[in-house]
UniProtKB/TrEMBL annotation:
UniProt name for this protein: HPr family phosphocarrier protein
InterPro entries assigned: HPr-like (IPR000032), HPr-like_sf (IPR035895)
Sequence ranges assigned to domain HPr in this UniProt record: 11-71
Pfam family, one: PTS-HPr
Annotated source species: Paenibacillus chartarius
Amino acid sequence: MTSANNAAIVEISQTANKFRSSIVLQYDNKYIDVKSILGLFTTLTSAGQYNLHVHGPDADEAKASMAQVFEKHGLAVNVVSE
């Protein structure tokens, strides 16, 4: 994994940890807590399409911030509206 991907993983995790909401990344049949750097390292690649599930008191703000971070690093993410 390149340092650019490492930077994306760290920024994604740090951004997620600013929120009280649960933020889970779905890729195929895997569900990863975005607040876990280790989970992201084992799953996140630039080639994937991911679904982001956000639940909690600050979900709307978290969805917007997370979408911006994924886009910044060129990672495709679909923010699921539930």
